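Q: My labmate handed me this sequence with no annotations at all. I'd like to see what the chain might look like in three dimensions before we decide whether it's worth expressing. Could you predict it?
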Amino acid sequence: MPSIGTIAQPLRVAIIGSGPSGFYAAEHLLKQMQLVIELDMYDRLPTPYGLVRGGVAPDHPKIKSVTKVYEKIAAHPNFRFFGNVEIGRDLTHADLTAHYHAVIYAVGAQSDRRMGIPGEDLAGSHAATEFVGWYNAHPDYRDLHFDLSQESVAVIGNGNVAMDVARILASTPEELHQTDIADYALEALRNSRVKHIYMLGRRGPAQAAYTNPELKELGELADADVVVSLEDATLDPLSEAWLADSGDNMARKNVALLQSYAQRGVRGKARQIHMHFLVSPVELLGTRRVEAIKLVRNVLQPASDGSLRPKATEETYTIPVGLVFRSIGYKGVALPDLPFDEKNGVIPNDQGRVLAEGHPLRGVYCTGWIKRGPTGIIGTNKPDSVETVNKLIEDLPNLPELSSENAARETILALMASRRVAYITFSDWQRLDQAEIANGQAVGRPRLKFSRISEMLAVIEAHKGEQVSAD
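A: Here is what I predict for the chain of 471 residues:
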């Protein structure tokens, strides 16, 4: 039997998920010039790119331009994309291990963390992930409804996703029209009555997780004031000492920006973004729907690892709000036939090697948020995926052989055909991509996204056989 990774027996790898971690794993694999590799990438949706398409804010086109890198990876002759294929429905984990020497799961973190407080399930209480998916035209969230007739909204969390939610709520229709926000979301936000957006962070301004550009953008909105009290912008002694010792330039700039907002004051704009620190929600109040949020004031105290952690005091207060978005983190979801760590929301692994009862599963790997948890930015996934692929290559002599009936690369196509799986190729996606851009240009917008899978498949079918633009 020839060695795996040769012309006689190419190394066959399936990557499940087409977000950044999946593409970076593909890139590193295809750079292994000493190996012959045939790589197939699968995604549940017809559209690739994961959170770059469905999570990055519509007014951040520069971040989305990373897809140009992924397009080059997808152009490799040994790369195939199969969109609209759900693992567990169309193909099973057993199907994958029968047709590939190695399988890399790069499925991200598809759920959200809950607050675990009374009233969390009242109408008007939502995960920020739902709102983000909705305004980004993600098919899973397209039909959700958010009551934008409410004048006051609370956004719980101090990360970039919380900032995105607040900024989208506070933007004018003219600002949003210049983006690729979903057309139905643009219309709903055009009629929004939201005036007050309360951003609530459990720690202080020096510990906020958002970046300087995100905080700066809030102060540049056309018709929204950033409201920060002098009390909130003033650091407690522990934070002052931590900031002086840490050398954290991002935190230092964030604090300076917040203090400049406090000094600038209110300028009479139509909407106000109120930034509150050292508070935690303890209850959502209301009968059938959210009417107010009860908060407890926190103080910071040193933890054993040297960080500053919030501790609740006995002081509480209430803010009347009719809509709440919790943005306290994403969470991974268990996959059929794979081990799962419920507590941490990840696939148990050792540097990307998937573990079952503490032992590596031969030929099964993971990368990205499902590997390490929902931390970092898009670029963080690159070294993470490189680590996983390096472990796969180390394991090359021990990878399982494929049976003779599954030896040909085309056998997975025959299996999907027998199950009538309507998979989407990368060329199909490119035709859909061109249609979205053309539809957007017709109305003076960068893109009009299709938000229903049935619409996407119909458009792809209508454009079958058309030449894909080289641009």
